[in-house]
Amino acid sequence: MADAIFQKAEETKQKILDTEVTTAEQLEAFRIQYLGTKNQIKPLFAEMRNIPNERKKEYGQLLNDVKQTAEQKFDSLKAAVAGDVTQQTVADIDMTAPPGELMVGSRHPVSIVMNRIINIFTKIGFTVAEDREIEDDWHNFTAMNTPEDHPARDMQDTFYLKDSTTHLLRTHTSSVQARVMTSQKPPIRIIAPGRVYRNETISARSHCQFHQVEGLYVDEKVSFADMKQTLDYFAREMYGPETKIRLRPSFFPFTEPSAEMDVWMGTKTEEAKKLTKGTGWLEVLGCGIVDPNVLENCNIDSDKYSGFAFGIGIERSAMQKYGISDIRMIFENDIRFISQFRSEI
Length: 345
Ligand code: PHE
Description:
- Helices cover 43% and strands 19% of the residues.
- By secondary structure, the chain is an alpha+beta fold.
- It has 2 domains: 2-92; 109-341, BirA Bifunctional Protein, domain 2 (2-Layer Sandwich).
- A 7-stranded mixed β-sheet has the order 1-4-5-9-8-7-6, with helices on both faces. Strands 2-3 form a two-stranded antiparallel ribbon.
- α1 (2-18) packs parallel to α4 (53-92) and α5 (109-122) packs across α11.
């Protein structure tokens, strides 16, 4: 009697091992047969009472083995059927069908303008230098010849870190000038793109964060004429070969003399008039001859070396180029806004 029961269990195990399925329906039938609530292994457990005590342990182990075999077999059959399904789908693919639409990302308008500027300057030998946004006041102000009592250092204008009087969010990329000049020897020819912060009230025209590209050129005998030539080249590359520029005297603590560069937009269109407040000239950047104090602060011999520097605001260019009327849109990351922009770079 016991032997017959043992044999039945062994046969069930063998049947499980021999099962082959090719379809999902057959797989489901296997599951019901061996793993379902009314499976065929269950009655074998009921036979336990007909097994003599000394063989109960052996029988129990055999049934566990049958059960495990069924579970493992189910897993491998399932994997095989899944593989089959995939193959079938591949065979069903219509290779002549037109492709579905691909989601292609787009660059942010700020990145587009920034990359464009970087390209223009790398073509004439400038290399990109990037540095930190959290700065100390030495690199942001002191090295840049900005006196202790300068209003720009005021809490009203600068974001200082919590409980700090020395660490701040950089207010301009000019801090990278100090970083580069204290770590490299002339000749220096860098552009530094990046984000800057000022404690401004947010409106359609101004924001507490924006982007600049800084330029710095330090070598022997660098003159104002070199600067003007370089900026003229930049303006023609950026705004078209016929572009006219003008340099207006200005003031920055770190350059002497200093200037602001305007680009001629004309007064013919309503848009140009609005953009230039009726003057026809669009202000694009600040620039100047590096103040000898700045060179000395950074341990560069100001008798031997001179240089020029400039800082280009990105948002204004982007707004002008793409007709964006509110600077806040640039920072909201609304996909409906950003996905409108396309670029090659
Ligand atoms: N750092 C100045 C600004 O933020 C721009 C500038 C850079 C001016 C370099 C002169 C030289 O407005």
